[in-house]
Amino acid sequence: MTYSNLRRRQWPEVPDCPEKLRFITSNLLQTHVLIRKSVQGLSDEALWRRHREDLYSIGNALMHVCGSEHEWITHGVGGRPKVRDRDAEFATLRGASLAQLLATLDEQEAQTRQVLRNLTDADLQKEFQGDCSVEFILHYQAQHLAYHAGQILMLRRLQEPGFNVV
Q1: Contact at 8 Å (CB) between 89 and 60?
Q2: Nearest one of 96, 102, 70 to 83, comparing CA atoms
Q3: How far are the Cα atoms of 6, 71, 72, 119, 156 from residue 77, in angstroms, in the given order?
Q4: Domain carrying residue 59
Q5: N or C: which end of the chain has fewer CB within 10 A?
Q6: Closest by Cα among 72, 62, 71 to 92
Q7: Please, what is the angle between helix 58-69 and helix 98-117, to 10°?
Q8: By C-alpha distance, which of 63, 68, 55, 58 is closest to 142?
Q9: pTM of the model
Q10: What is the CATH number of the domain that holds 43?
Q11: Is residue 111 part of a domain?
């Protein structure tokens, strides 16, 4: 695919958010699409498989993605109560089913969309924890989610060589 073809692709948008954030919010939501494609059809056994003791599973990565997005966007930007156990995201050895984790991802995406719809240009300069602007948080989260989406895809390919999301 060439760069010009990539620019013509239609990614999910949150049209109500500030104009300057449309690309980054679209990127954030597209990462959810890539994560879903990467885990499609995965068995619960494969979901929680750790390839080495010092690596986490795809299930752990999904829990972490949801927890991080909740903390930074739903809580940090949206002001909702923080509900997160970060240590459990990585320590869980066998947890929820794929369907349950995808339902959590869907719920988090809905919360993220709601927060983004309510943002104004003035909100972008507000600070979270005294040192991060809302605009920075959104860029950070898009990068963070893409990083873990890549990990999820690689963990899937370790289990199924040749697996692709295309």
Answers
A1: yes
A2: 70
A3: 30, 9, 6, 9, 32
A4: 14-159
A5: C
A6: 62
A7: 20
A8: 68
A9: 0.88
A10: 1.20.120.450
A11: yes
| Whole-angstrom distance, CA of residue 62 vs CA of residue 47 | 9
pLDDT digits 0-9 by tens, 28-65: 888 999 999 999 999 999 999 999 989 999 999 999 99
* Most distant CA atoms of the chain, gap in Å: 47
Kindly state the tokens that stand for 142: 């898009």
3-state helix, strand, coil in the chain (%, to 5): 65, 0, 35
* Length, in residues, of the chain: 166
pLDDT in tens, 86-129: 999 999 999 899 999 999 999 999 999 899 888 888 888 788 77
Angle 98-117/22-39 helices, nearest 10 degrees?
170
Residue that the structure tokens 């349950």 belong to: 100
